[in-house]
Amino acid sequence: MPDDAMPRSLFVDFMYAVAVGATIVRIDPSHLHVRSVEFWGVWFLIAVFLEDFYLYHTKVVPNLTSRLTARGLIVEMTIVFTWYVAQVAFPTRPDWFLISFAVFFLLKLLAGLGMGGSYPTRNDFLFLLPVGTALVLLFCPSSGSTSLIALFLAWFVSVGVWWSAETKQAG
Length: 171
Fold this sequence. Notes:
The chain contains 6 helices and no strands. The protein has about 170 residues and is mainly α. It has one domain. The longest helix has 27 residues. It is globular, with a radius of gyration of 16 Å. About 25% of the residues are buried.
């Protein structure tokens, strides 16, 4: 990692920790059962965010060439913010949840398109799968559990193919 990228990644690490820390407290005794949509939704959203954190550290940080700029700060904090709004909105505000979830992945796509170096930009088009799924669910309302399953499958496929393609490209 370039030496001048270190302060940037440390700040983003802090923001990821704050967001996840504020989310974990949502799991209280009333949600601790296998039929709780909120229980599974919170863990799913944490998994989405941790995968994003892993991608950031393994694929983005090595390609950072300068200290944090205003544009970079806005993009990175907007990604964190949209994820946070998605998890706050789930499951009581499905419209806000689905829009924020879609925007989270759209921002990741746009940020990836702006990356240079050896970042696998074309893989980021896979983020359109969770975006499209969220938008379909927005216009074709379904139950919270059905939406959660559909989003999980879209995310799981996009992440699985993203990392498989990256492994093949790197190998």
